[in-house]
Amino acid sequence: xxxxxxxxxxxYGGASKSLIELFSLMRQSAIDGTVLTPGGSAASAFADAGxxxxxxxxxxxxxxxxxxxxxxxxxxILLRELLFLPGSLWTLWRMxxxxxxxxxxxxxxxxxxxxxxxxxxxxxxxxxxxxxxxxPPGNWRTRxxxxxxxxxxxxxxxxxxxxxxTLGRDLSLExxxxxxxxxxxxxxxxxxxxxxxxxxxxxMGVLIALKGIYELLEAMRILKNRGVAIECVIAxxxxxxLKGLRAWVLRKLGFARNVRADLEQMIHDYGxxxxxxxxxxxxxxxxxxxxxxxxxxxxxxxAAGRPxxxxxxxxxxxxxxxxxxxxxAVLHEHTxxxxxxxxxxxxxxxxxxxxxxxxxxxxxxxxxxxxxxSNFSIESSASTMVAIYRRLRSKDERKQ
Length: 400
What we know:
Elements: E1 2-6, H1 14-26, E2 32-38, H2 41-48, E3 52-56, H3 77-94, E4 102-105, H4 111-121, E5 125-129, H5 140-152, E6 155-158, H6 161-164, H7 189-196, E7 199-204, H8 213-226, E8 230-235, H9 244-253, H10 259-270, E9 276-280, E10 294-297, H11 306-313, E11 318-321, E12 336-339, H12 344-356, H13 358-375, H14 378-399
Parallel strand pairs: 1-2, 1-4, 2-3, 4-5, 5-6, 7-8, 7-10, 8-9, 10-11, 11-12
C-alpha cells in the first residue's frame, strides 16, 4: 500500500519523529511511504527511515491552532502561506501520475493543501491532528475548519483526548496516541545524581517560543537565586536562523526570533553558564534520557508533548504546563506535576519540589513508566493506523 504523507515542518521535531516511528513499524505491514516536506533535518530523517522524500521550499498552511491562530498582526503570516502556495501546487501537480492508495496529512494546518491533493490523486485522506485547535465554536475559522473536516476528511485522527476535545463534536474521531519505541534500560536517577551532586532537568524540542523555552530559562534564574542544586540541558534545533532584511522585518513584526541567540544572551546575562547547557540538535535523544532526573515541558500549547511520554518510559517524571490535564496527558501528582500555565515562578516551584524530594521524584517516575507502557505502545498505534488505511482503501475500491 502506497501512502503519500504531507508534513509541514523542515526542522526535525516531535511530529516528524512520531511519524517515523509509526512508519518504521507500519512498513512491516507492506506500507510504502512517500513524504512531501520542506527540506531540512526532518527530510533527512525521513529518508534515513526508508521513506521516499519529495523536497519542497515550503508547504502552504492555514493555522487555526489555539496558540498560532490568526489575529491582529498575525494575519500577515498568511502572505507567507500564499507565497508557498504556487510551489506546493506545482509539486503536487508534477506528482499526479504517481499511484497512491491513501493521503496522510501529518498536521491539520495542512488541511487545505490536503484537500487539493485529494482532488488531484482522487484517493481517501487521513488528517492527523497533533495540535489543540482554536476553542470558540462560534469562530468562523473554527467553523470553516470543522466543515472542511466533515466534508473532505475520510478519517480524523487526533493524538489524544485533549486534542480531540478541541474538534467539532459531530466529527467521527479515532484517537491514535503517539506510540513510542524506546530502549528504556535501568534509569540512573540515584547513581547519576549522586555523581553530579545536582538534579538534572531536560528540555527536548525545537527551539521556538511557544514551547516555553524562555520561561524555562527565567525559572532557572529563579532557582539559581534560591540556591537550588539543579541544572538544565536543552536539546533542540534552532527553528529559525534568518538573516538580512527578511529577518529584520519579521523580528520587528514579532514573527521571527533567533531563539538560540536569545537563549545564549539570557544565559550570559543571568550568569547561568554552569546551570544551563545548550546541546543543539540531538539525533537520538534516547541517549540523553538516562542522564535526566526530570523532564520539563512548559509549552504554551496547554498540552503534553512527545518528550513527556518518552521520559516516562525511562521512569522520569515531568513538569507540564497544562491547565486541566486528561488521563492520557499527565496524571498530576502521579506521573508528574501539572502547572496551569508556563509562568516562570510556577515552573521554578514545581522543579524545586521534585529536585528537593528524592522519594517523590522516584515514586512519580516509577508510576510514569507503568502509565506509559499502558497508554503508548507503538505496536498498538501502528496496528490501528494500518487498519484505518486498509479500511479506507477497501472503501475506495468498492466505489470504483
